[in-house]
Design brief:
The structure holds 2 protein chains of 2 kinds. By secondary structure, chain A is mainly α. Chain A has a single domain, classed as Orthogonal Bundle (ABC transporter involved in vitamin B12 uptake, BtuC). Helices cover about 85% and strands about 0% of the residues of chain A. In chain A, helix 3 packs across helix 4, helix 3 packs across helix 9 and helix 4 runs antiparallel to helix 5. Chain A is globular and about 65 Å long. Chain B has a domain of about 180 residues: Rossmann fold (3-Layer(aba) Sandwich), CATH 3.40.50.300. In chain B, about 30% of the residues lie in helices and about 20% in strands. A 6-stranded mixed beta sheet of chain B has the order 5-6-7-3-8-9. In chain B, a hairpin with a 1-residue loop joins strand 8 and strand 9. In chain B, helix 2 crosses helix 3, helix 3 packs across helix 4 and helix 6 packs across helix 9. At the A-B interface, helix 7, helix 8 and helix 11 of A face helix 2 of B.
Chain lengths: ~280, ~270
């Protein structure tokens, strides 16, 4: 058992395990709806939109840590803008996300350029591309809090979200508040992404949103099982990836993503075999 | 009919004295900007009547359906589902059964046939199906002759089977009014023929009011108990025998031109024979 107990005896690994599994499971659960709605790119888009919010906070002379509290509402507003454009029905998800992603990123560059020359140098990348092994207690509490709130919200709305994801018009005819759910889902995605990006990094967040859901979608025959499987893959991928990276002494984020990619390849193989 | 348009003569409309009304559209007008899509549209359906709604593309059929389904608000006029004197003008989700177009749904969504039917029964997507819901879904599938489809993944159904499942989904709430929006568009010939036969059985055996929007005149001939021809306004509303094969409908549609721009009802006679 030393292969498990050794890494878990260290504080930074304990925090990484907890944060990784929480973020992995939460992103995977949201990812099921995001992927099935054809919005896989939104994880990347909102993660980069966070940059605009961080830069706005810095322009307002906040510290890097405090700027996250500006990035949070900023990214939520961007997500609501994307939801509004999507609901207008004139543009696809990829186009809407692409436009808002580019504009908010450009705003970020503008805000940074507007800072006075004497302002202290800030390594924005350190915030945007955080490392899962460097998570502090405060970040862990934030991730845990968001996970609790998001789990309650998703648990309360899962069956309606699933119906609206299958077909918004039919769901609306059955009395499902589709518009409110659309805005809620994207706002929740924004909150989860801002918090997760700061703790585990932009690439890992996007991977957690897309890969477990995509793999589960190849195997599961119902949206309920797809959700369960995606969450399981997200949690297991984070834990096993961290363990593997510890013992192999390689980058943890990359190991997790590669492991998720391996799960996806297995699911694709299973799907192909079943079809043939 | 407005002045200047040829008259179709006397057409037989439902009799309010002898037939109880279960659905009524009164003076519905809808504009999108300057474009008048629905102009004072009024008609009603008695209990158990199967109405085919015909008209050219862009004539306002889809907008009328959206108004009936409550997805669009009319600028003026009312839609009433239920008997006259009903206090509310809004239908509950269980009062209207809706069968969408075949092409307009998400094929790769992981779901089984019964999930789709129970979702409409419950108003939410089911994670687990309860015994009562199972019985209701089974009965709905039996009504459309689709019991063998139980347990199948929707991604593996043919077009005709899929529309049959959507029909069962619409029927599971025992609606007052069934609305079918071009249900066989995009379905292969065999699937279409099977679906139309199911519709025919339902139209004859059940006391269900229905509106079928279709461009296929064979479907009109097989299922309709009355036909309503819409081109922004109600241009004709009568029995199928009074309208099918009428070559003067083209002139009504496009007065003075007698063009072949849209002439579906004569085609109907050819398809039917």
């Amino acid at each position: 058992m030393s292969w498990l107990l050794d890494p878990l005896s260290q504080g930074f690994m304990q925090r990484a395990f907890i944060a990784g599994m929480l973020v992995g499971g939460l992103c995977a659960c949201i990812g099921v709806f995001v992927v099935k709605r054809g919005l896989s790119f939104i994880g990347d888009g909102l993660a980069h939109a966070t940059f605009g919010g961080i830069a706005l906070g810095l322009w307002l002379e906040l510290g890097v840590q405090q700027a996250v509290w500006v990035a949070l509402p900023f990214t939520v507003v961007v997500s609501l803008g994307i939801a509004y454009v999507l609901r207008s029905g004139r543009l696809g998800g990829d186009v809407a996300t692409g436009v808002f992603f580019a504009v908010s990123f450009a705003l970020g560059v503008l805000f940074l350029g507007l800072r006075p020359p004497e302002a202290p140098m800030v390594n924005v990348e350190s915030v945007l591309f955080g490392s899962i092994l460097a998570i502090g207690h405060a970040d862990l509490y934030m991730v845990a809090g968001v996970t609790v709130v998001a789990t309650l919200l998703l648990g309360a709305t899962w069956s309606r979200l699933a119906y609206a994801t299958f077909d918004p018009a039919l769901a609306r005819l059955s009395g499902v508040p589709v518009a409110a759910l659309d805005y809620m889902l994207l706002a929740l995605t924004a909150v989860v992404i801002v918090v997760s990006v700061k703790t585990v990094g932009v690439v890992l967040v996007s991977s957690f949103i897309v890969i477990p859901a995509a793999a589960a979608g190849l195997v599961a025959r119902s949206i309920g099982r797809m959700s369960l499987l995606a969450v399981t893959l997200g949690v297991f991928g984070a834990a096993s990836g961290l363990l593997a990276s510890y013992h192999l002494n390689v980058a943890s984020g990359a190991t997790i993503i590669l492991l998720l990619g391996f799960f996806f390849a297995l699911a694709l193989g299973f799907h192909t075999l079943r079809r043939s | 009919m407005s002045a200047g348009r040829p008259s179709l003569g006397s057409l037989t409309q439902p009799d309010r004295e002898t037939q109880p009304c279960v659905f009524e559209v009164s003076g519905v007008t809808k504009r999108y900007g300057e474009h008048l899509v629905l102009d004072d549209v009024s008609f009603w359906i008695p209990k158990g009547e199967f109405l085919c709604l015909c008209g050219p593309n862009g004539a306002g059929k889809s907008t009328l359906l959206k108004v009936i389904l409550g997805l669009e608000k009319p600028d003026s006029g009312t839609v009433r589902i239920g008997p006259p004197g009903r206090t509310t003008e809004r239908a509950t989700s269980h009062e209207v059964g809706y069968v969408p177009q075949h092409k307009a749904f998400h094929r790769d969504f992981p779901a089984r046939v019964e999930d789709l039917i129970v979702a409409n029964f419950r108003g939410r997507w089911p994670y687990r199906i309860r015994e009562q819901e199972r019985a209701a879904a089974d009965a709905a599938l039996a009504r459309v002759g689709g019991q063998h489809l139980w347990g199948k993944e929707i991604s593996k159904l043919s077009g005709g089977q899929m529309q049959r499942v959507f029909l069962a989904r619409a029927l599971v709430t025992n609606p007052t009014l069934l609305i079918l929006d071009e249900p066989t568009a995009g379905v292969d010939i065999r699937g279409r023929a099977e679906f139309v036969e199911v519709l025919f059985e339902i139209s004859r055996s059940e006391e269900l009011a229905a509106i079928l929007v279709t461009h296929h005149m064979g479907e009109v001939a097989r299922t309709a108990e009355r036909v309503l021809y819409l081109e922004h306004r109600v241009l004709a509303w009568g029995l199928p025998d009074e309208l099918l094969g009428r070559d003067d409908l083209a002139a009504i549609s496009d007065p003075g031109a007698r063009s072949t721009r849209w002439d579906p009802l004569p085609v109907c006679a050819e398809e039917h024979t």
